[in-house]
Hints:
By secondary structure, the protein is α+β, with helices and mostly antiparallel strands. About 50% of the residues lie in helices and about 20% in strands.
Amino acid sequence: MARPAGVGALLGGLWILVAVLPWDFDDFCRSEGWGCLGFALMVLAATPVVLALLGWVVLRAAGVRPAWRVAGVGTLLGVLAAVLSSRAGGTGPWLSFAAPLVLAAAYAAAAAVAPGVGSPRRWGALAGVLVLLWPLSGVLGDQQVSAYRERQLAASKVPLLAPELDGHRLYFAEANEFSGTFGYLILPSSVPTSADDREALGIRVTVGPQLPGFAPPEVCRVMSGSAEESTGRCELVAPETWRATTYDSVRYIARRQGVIVVLTGGGPTVPESDLRAMAQSLAVRKAGSFPDR
């Protein structure tokens, strides 16, 4: 299996060489009918074919038989390894630079199972490993995403303020390091996140720093999303809580923990009583209390 592993490592090194060349991808994108998407799909489809053909040629030259079967199975295993690694959260340049090791292992494994066409045990064991690795990679990927989000929220520049959610659920929590804000969407439990009109049916919440232009009740300049907006005049409805209206929404603005929380509801689709109750129940929450979806 040493020679097939060496061939796999050689192909992986060639992949690194191609990846680090100073390609002008703008030219490739302009030359394709589908733009950059078409070019990317073409590369994804062509890469395994090219690797398998090169592998077959080099394996034959190295005296490995059956070369075509080892090349085909080895390339397939290498692609599956890359997919599983990406699914498990393995992204970034290091994944490309690991190509020699990945393809060396894939070609060595292919040399071990490919000649044994009449040995279903080998193929069954390989298939069983792949079947087990698929859900495992998904679990690892979810854990990676969850851990990243918790770190991002924990590093927020503003307190993670959120209301009590009686009959509602919170989605898409995100801390924006550039605008210094923290935001999320609150939806009624009956509204799925896939709804086209979810923004109109939900409550958009932004927690941001107090702007110099915030001088209620005359001027209520606040952060809405990642942009600064002025709601004009706002009326005091409770201690440190104001109400403002726009042409299509009602906003409750609360000053808590030295920051400004803006709760925006889509006009008549969101009961104002919900906005008022949420503004009054705002409290600092832990980063882990915000769901991933």
